[in-house]
């Protein structure tokens, strides 16, 4: 029987706190020595898991994932840009389907390619409905790479049924993504609308640049907050701790 240890951990986090905090590490921006120090700081700051991934990948994931696992007890969860972004040295993978678009490669194609390797590596798959939301940029990397159009910021009535469809298809989480380095995060109204329609955890990422914004997203209905770029630009233990405290309070 397949273990759901990481997903169970996520649910335990939600029992303990109002919401959880994930730190996204881009392997392209993190050499092994830097990752070792960052992993220790992420755990000490009070984050609940590390997401590992990005839209592009030229560095070898294995040594980075190994280092993260050696330096922290936090779950290391892959957040893949495509089926090649895999390593046996993680705990789990967000098995994402880009349900906001209609590109079959990202709805099911990349998932089929990855499935045998996920099984071989004994990674815990966490089926996740992934939705791109307009973040104010001209065009995000994931939008360009996936060849899809994000859901407009003012179309909560479109986002809600997409998220509900993900739940009905058996997915375990929904992830609303404004995009790496987005000018604006996912709107509170959209978060509240989506959360009211689903009974699975809701992840919010992209454009969350301050702990205050993170707290606002939790108040709107987010179950998990993801930060990445803001830490790459202004990364410090104090900032991560402030995010964790804002999300958990």
Summarize the structure.
With 249 residues, the protein is an alpha/beta fold.
Query: What is the CATH class?
Result: Alpha Beta
Question: Which class of secondary structure composition applies to the elements?
Answer: alpha/beta
Mean pLDDT: 94
Task: Quote the CATH topology.
Answer: TIM Barrel
Query: Which band does the percent of strand residues land in?
Result: 15-25%
Helix content: 40-55%
Spell out the blueprint of helices and strands.
Layout: H1 5-16, E1 20-25, H2 32-45, E2 49-52, H3 61-71, E3 76-78, E4 92-98, H4 104-121, E5 124-132, H5 141-146, H6 156-168, E6 173-177, H7 188-197, E7 202-205, H8 211-220, E8 224-227, H9 229-234, H10 237-248
Parallel strand pairs: 1-2, 1-8, 2-3, 3-4, 4-5, 5-6, 6-7, 7-8
